[in-house]
Description:
Elements: E1 3-13, H1 15-27, E2 34-41, E3 44-51, H2 54-63, E4 69-77, E5 92-94, E6 100-108, H3 111-120, H4 130-145, H5 148-156, E7 161-169, E8 176-181, E9 186-189, E10 193-197, E11 209-212, E12 217-222, E13 225-230, E14 235-236, E15 239-242, H6 258-264, H7 266-274, H8 293-297, E16 301-306, H9 308-325, E17 329-333, H10 334-337, E18 348-354, H11 360-371, E19 375-380, H12 386-389, E20 393-396, H13 409-429, H14 436-455, H15 459-467, E21 473-478, H16 482-497, E22 500-505, E23 522-526, H17 536-549, E24 553-559, E25 571-575, H18 584-601
Parallel strand pairs: 16-17, 16-18, 18-19, 19-20, 21-22, 21-23, 23-24, 24-25
Antiparallel strand pairs: 1-4, 1-10, 2-3, 2-4, 5-6, 6-7, 7-8, 8-12, 9-10, 9-11, 11-15, 12-13, 13-14
Helix pairs in contact: 3-4, 4-5, 7-13, 7-14, 9-13, 9-16, 13-14, 14-18, 15-18, 16-18
The chain binds 5-amino-5-deoxy-1-O-phosphono-D-mannitol.
Residues 307-310, 354-356, 359, 362, 405-407, 491, 495, 615-616 line the site of 5-amino-5-deoxy-1-O-phosphono-D-mannitol.
Amino acid sequence: MCGIVGYVGRSNDSTALEVVMEGLARLEYRGYDSAGVALVDGDHVETRKKSGKLANLTAELEAHPLAGSTTAIGHTRWATHGGPTDANAHPHRGGRDGKLALIHNGIIENFHALRQGLLADGVEFSSETDTEVVAHLVAAAYDERGDLTEAMRAVVADLEGAFTLLAIHADQPGVVVGARRNSPLVVGLGDDANYLGSDVAAFIGYTRHALELAQDQIVTITPDGATVINFDGTPAEGTAYEVTWDAAAAEKGGYATFMEKEIHDQPHAVADTLLGRTDASGRLVLDELRISEEQLEAVDRITIVACGTAAYAGMVAKYAIEHWTRIPVEVALAHEFRYCDPIVSERTLVVSISQSGETMDTLMAVKHARSLGALTISVCNTHGSTIPRESDAVLYTHAGPEIAVASTKAFLAQITACYVLGLYLAQLRGGSFADDAQSVMKELGEVPAKIETLLGRMDRVKEIARFMADTRAVLFLGRHVGYPIALEGALKLKELAYIHAEGFAAGELKHGPIALIEPGQPVFVIVPSPTAEHGLHGKVVSNIQEIRARGARTLVIAEEGDESVVPFADEVISVPATSQLLAPLLTVVPLQVFALWLSTAKGLDVDQPRNLAKSVTVE
Length: 619
Ligand code: M6R
């Protein structure tokens, strides 16, 4: 959940600190409770750290500047052990001479026992963190071995839990050592300088050449290159790759917030995720999956594992995949999956969905599924991340970097990738929907332009959000694929505007939730297309009448030209027409815009809402 940056170069000047601070600015979305930097300064390491946002650290550095250096590390924190105070902020120094500085992402599960051992040896602690324990252990190991890589190797053997660690030592300038287990770390390869980061955003301003590390590996960077070994000391090699986006993609591009920019990126996110997935004849080709057609044809059950917004993308996918393939699909919250004794066989396909590819709950669900013999596919937006590595295959979404904590464009890209997967399976199985796959792909290809049109009509939604700045609770209703969109609308509002918000399946109303309706209660209703199967449209219009009769303020999202909702709606938000299963790619957009502007109207931090972090890398 924390952001980690490491840099080593040749010039003994301000470059190291500048690179690390720029990396922290790009990684701040990962955690923003406190931030700190350390660099080698002659015969010692110097640190500066401050609780609160990165701006506080910047002010601290202006008040107490650091000397030039070739070697620096930096950290932005989401607190786990110990509150977000200056003392608990990373880096932590280790050893009696304080020559080592270390930063950490993750949780050291056996830190208490290790700390007791150090206390017994007379070590004094200046923080409550599990990280400081590791700093002292690595410092002691360095004193014995005289080499930072070897010291790190000796210590990681005793650590339990998930961690990325970076360390520098005053006696070994020009070296940064990193280690990872179940927590992200990528290497950036530059000219005369090399980088480490929780993700490539840390160094995207300097290089697009990256190296992916496997589990349980240690990397040592110097200005000359990067050396990788396994925790057991055997030599290893990272997997080199090129980052496909540049620094501009990780900037706001003229918008006030990343979230607003990312909402506007959505037509591209969908279009890019569709790119290259059909051949000249329009047939779906997913060679990248590297799973044999025989294996996929044998699948008799699909389980989707994910958390938060990604799980709602999975719920949308369930309706589509079951409809097209007739394979039963179950959606499990990843953190529940492992503990519910899941029914999994070698004919079960477990599809994980994750923007970051680092969500620990999802990663653990994938590992559990594999241990039970399932075939695993990761739908993921982040190259070089852990979940794709730990899966049998990956279907990348191409949303580009998503920086705002609230997920928007990744959600649309996830739904799109799941549609592609569902249509591919339908095509393979040759059922009645195999022939339809091409026409659905064609219709999907028209969606980006429809999102663009919709985004051009959001002024009224923005106004509604402003008027509703004092609202205390909002309800969201939907049916069929509109149900997960209702859940997503509620989640966006909770996380961004700190408003109590609930999403319901509209059919469930009369089974309890209708008791919540009182005069003036705002309720968003996602209405299916009048052409939807099984008369669903009429049923939802009846639901609107029922809540309106009880005083609800109805904010209705309906297909353009659907006049039947007008008499019962306080506001109608029209979305371009599309077939029922694809409608979520459009109906969610006004809800994202609503949450963005309500949060803005309340004067809140849209991109970094309180208590949250972009990737949840602890369980
Ligand atoms: O990186 P992931 O897609 O695995 O993240 C899953 C959730 O943590 C994430 O979608 C979260 O719910 C978002 N903050 C919602 O906007």
